[in-house]
Write a structure and sequence with these properties.
The protein is an alpha/beta fold. The protein has one domain: UDP-N-acetylmuramoyl-L-alanine:D-glutamate ligase. 33% of the residues lie in helices and 26% in strands. The strands form two sheets. The protein has a nine-stranded mixed β-sheet with strand order 5-4-1-8-9-10-11-12-13, sandwiched between helices. α5 crosses α6. The longest helix is centred in the last third of the chain and has 15 residues. It is globular.
């Protein structure tokens, strides 16, 4: 079983399904409400755990009922939460609107996630050796950079899901990370006009590899000058919330388990496709057995 350390956000998701996503200034009625546990970091940790990895979570939640419930749910997935701090701030909340075709809009109130610090991710108590550190941008970029640099010191491969998109610090790219943006995030953080230019910019700046998630079009894997297009899994989408988190979590689990990046990207793409068949970020996240069965088919 491979080792995955996740540095990231822990939220509660408040979801409204609506006839269509609202335009600026528009109120859309007729929706249905549901509440789910989420956060990009926590979702990625759950995806990695279900894919067979031994997962530890680093982050922060409030000293409130949402924080207690969030931690209990992670423990139930077999995730080590001993490095998640309880802080004097509310647990993060995401407000999500979902259209009939599964597309979504998300607004996040960071809360406790904004208090994750570089000291939290020193990884000083972790043994050296193989494994993967997985992180995202729903916690402060200073903590992300510190985690990536610490991972390199102890032998962990770092994967960064650069979402929400923002400019990447030079120190982050120079640490030899694997990046997992979606197409919009790739263009936003590089300023490029097309995917290939954006990918080339990141690899030239030091990224080991870039795996771009493309939704219904699958994914694109880039290492050096090599490119591989990975077709999407044919499913009927219900809710795309959490598909990118599933991709990153399964990619980390597969790499931690000793697979090469190409095989890991294929498995992650398969898992992301399966994940959109359920409502909420986690309900559709597949087990290792489900991923392997779909890959065989």
């Amino acid at each position: 079983m491979g080792r995955v350390v996740v540095v990231g956000s822990i939220n509660v998701d408040l979801v409204v399904t609506a006839p269509h996503l609202p335009r600026a200034g528009e109120t859309v009625t007729g929706g249905a409400f549901s509440r789910h546990l989420g956060g990009k970091g926590a979702n990625q940790a759950v995806a990695a755990a279900r894919a067979g990895a031994s997962v530890a979570m680093i982050g922060a939640v409030g000293a409130d009922a949402d924080g207690t419930e969030s931690l209990a749910a992670l423990v139930a997935e077999g995730i080590d939460v001993s490095a998640v701090r309880r802080v004097d701030a509310p647990t993060g909340v995401a407000i999500i609107a979902v259209a009939p075709d599964g597309e979504n809009q998300i607004v996040v109130a960071s809360g406790a996630n904004a208090l994750v610090s570089a000291d939290d991710v020193s990884l000083a108590d972790l043994p050296t050796g193989p494994g993967v550190l997985l992180t995202c941008f729903e916690v402060p970029i200073s903590a992300v950079t510190a985690g990536v640099q610490a991972a390199r010191r102890i032998g962990l491969q770092a994967i960064v899901n650069p979402a929400p998109a923002q400019p990447l610090p030079v120190g982050l790219l120079e640490a030899g990370v694997i990046l997992t943006p979606n197409a919009d995030e790739l263009l936003a953080m590089t300023g490029a006009e097309d995917l290939d230019a954006g990918i080339s910019t990141l690899i030239s700046a030091g990224a080991d590899a870039v795996v771009v998630t493309l939704g219904a079009a699958g994914a694109l894997l880039a290492q050096g000058t090599r490119r591989r297009s990975i077709p999407a899994v044919a499913v009927e989408a219900v809710d795309t919330t959490g598909a990118g988190d599933t991709f990153s979590g399964v990619l980390a689990a597969w790499l931690a388990g000793g697979h090469n990046l190409e095989d890991a990207a294929v498995a992650a793409n398969c898992a992301a496709g399966l994940s959109v068949t359920g409502t909420g970020a986690r309900s559709g996240m597949p087990s290792l057995a489900a991923i392997e069965a779909r890959l065989r088919s």
